[in-house]
Each structure stands twice: as structure tokens, then as C-alpha cells.
Amino acid sequence: MDNPAVICAIVFIAVLVLLTTGIWIAAAIALVGIILLAFVVGGGKISMVGMLQFNMLNNFTFTCIPLFIFMGEMILHGQLGDKLYRGASALVGFLPGGLLHTNIVSCAFFAAVSGTSMATAATIGMVAIPEMEKRGYDRKLVLGSLAAGGTLGILIPPSAAMIVYGMFVGESIGRLFIGGVFPGLVLAGLFMTYIGVMSLMRPQLVPSRGKISLRAMLLSVTDIWPFLVLIFLVLGTIYLGLATPTEAAAMGSVTSILFCAIYRRLNWQVLKAATLAAVQITCWLMFIMIGAYVLAMGLSFLRVPMNLAKWVTAVEIGRVYIFIMVCFLYIVLGCFMDGTSMLLLTITVVYPVMMSLGFDSVWLGIILVILQEMGQITPPVGVNLFVIHGISGKKYFRDIVMGSIPFFILMNVMVVILYIFPDLVLWLPGQMIQKF
After folding, report:
1. Range of 96's domain?
2. How confident is the prediction for the chain on average, in pLDDT?
3. 3-class SS at 14?
4. What's the number of CA atoms in the CB half-sphere (13 Å) around residue 80?
């Protein structure tokens, strides 16, 4: 079987069939990889699986994953989100859209100290939903803005998704983090622009908004300063070349504990919950990555990625059409799989194809993160939809989905913008490299 496209199709279908049985995604991917190695590749290559697992996990860079997750979980379980929300309200609550803008700004701030979107959506949602229900804001806009705003958690660095991508393809984690800054801010700006336009067109959706108060803006610093410190410790030190991502994660984790202690939110329950969440999420990621590496090794021995890249470059298809097909693939998969599983299942084949077409590795990583974001707000497996659904008392699921649709469209617009203007991703990492 020499056709790489046929092999890819068979592997993909095999994984999907296994998933219908209820098996873990990590086990499904690994099982298909083991079958490839044992029965298709042959030659005793199956004996390399144990060594592969050890070599993959014996990597110092992976240390930053649990540390970044722990940092965000400490802020979540320490219930510091209410201070962030109050500070953000003073900064943007006077804009057309009122507290809806606060949802997005708060999510953007929290995303900069958390590696996951679920923690971002949960932290801000728990504070925002009661406030906005009390004031009579449109339910769809409220819930949709929180579900979509939560997705900024994996685009604005630090991001577990970027770490996984960078480790799998061998790209610099620091460059990926810095490359996500401008796209994250632009996407947050698109969300806020939509909210502002809708509020002006249909004022009944937003019953009230705050007044401009310079004093309140100045006082808001007392609420958001811990997040500003954490942002500098993570992004500032990486950009300035003062720390590696792992060192920045360690500083951020220790500082998050200190802030919980300063605000008298530190206790055994908070520390235990944050630690367990970090361990659980990290183990889940590691299992999926092991399965993906086993599958990648099987496909590599069959030379599938290399042959598929050669085939794509040989046929006269414009790279824009290949890019569109890749985007469509991830949007469809995002409806049925979580973002990390979707990425690791496909990246072995997608990455060499995209590199052969001349796309930049950092740029591609940011694009794939945005495509993962879309999957988090698309049913039936959109995790952010279920997070907001749970916070809202397990009500209004239809309103959450409908309210997320405009933001899903804006994410597609963001992908188009980055395709036309790739320097939005590449300029800042380029400046970082020039300094050192």
C-alpha cells in the first residue's frame, strides 16, 4: 500500500471507529499506531515503543505544562477572578456594550496567566453570569461572549496548546508564545467590536452601562496589578531573554501562591485543588502525546508524511486551496474531538505538507490554535459550551450555542486576516530574535 492518502484515510477512519466504542482518545491513537508498527511496518519495530515513551517524556521543557496549569488553577480556586472582573469593569464598562466588554477583557487578562480555556471560561463565567443576569443583559450575548472569550485562554500565552504543538514539531515555545500576543489582542478586539456594534444597533440588548470615571480607572490598578505582575513574569521575561518558558512558569506558579496568600485566599483546599487539577490535566496531555508519538512513528516508517508532502507539491493546486482544506478539516474535527486530540491526530501529516508549501512553523502553530478555539464552541463536543452550561445552572444550552455563532464567524475572519497579514504573528518573535 504505497498511496499515502489512502493510508491516512484508513488510519483516520480506524481511530474514529475506535472512538465510537467509548475508548479513550489516547488509547485509540496509540492502538492504531501499535497495529501499524506490528503488522504493517514489521521488522520488530514494535519493540521501540517503550524507548519512544521514555525519550518523549524525559524532556525538561515539558515541566512548564503543569506549572502553567497550576498557576491558572491557583488563581481560579483562590477566587481572584472577582477582583479582575471588578478592575476590568472600571476600564471598559463605559463602552457601548457595558459589562459584555468586561467579559472579553477579563478573559484576555486571565488568559495571560492560564494555559487552558476551560479555566478562563470558568473563572470569569462564575463572576460574570450572576452580575449580568441581575442587570438584565441579553442572555445569548452574555453566554456567547463568555464561551468565546474563554477560548482566548489557549491563544493568548501562556498556552498548553502551543507547548504541545511546539514540542511535537520542534518549534521554540518562546517564539510561539510571543507570536500569539498580537493575534490574541486582535481577536479580543474583534469580539469587542461586534459587541459594541450590536449594542448600538439594538440598545435593548444592553440595559445599562457604566460612566467614564478616571478615579475608578486609576483604582482599578489595585485589582488587576497581580495579573499585570504575572503577565510580566511570564511573557516579559521570555521576550527579554531573561528566562526560559519553564523558568517563567516556575516564577509564575510561586507568585500565584503568594498572591493567594496576600489576599487571604490560600489554604489547604485551594492548594490541593490546584495541584490535583494540574496533575490530572498534565497526565491527560501526556497520554495523548504518547499515543500520537506512537502513531507518528508508524506513519514515519511508512514514509507517509514525506510522500504526502511530495505529492501535494507535485500536483498543481494553489496553496491557498490546501490551506482552506486544512482549515475545513480542523473545523469539522473540532465538532467531535477536543482540540489537543484533534491536533495530535493530524499534525504528523499536516505539518510536513504545510511546511513543503512554504508556510512558517510559528504562523501555522497560531493558526492551528485558533482552529482549536473554534472547536471549543462548536457542538456537540465544544468544551467551553459545557463549562458555561454548568456554571449557568445547566440551563440555556441552546442560548449558549446560538450566542457563540457570531464569535465563531469572527474566528474565521481572524484566520483570513492572519493569512493575508502573517506579520501579525511573525513580527514580534522576529524582534525578540534580533535582540539576542
Report:
1. 4-435
2. 86
3. helix
4. 30
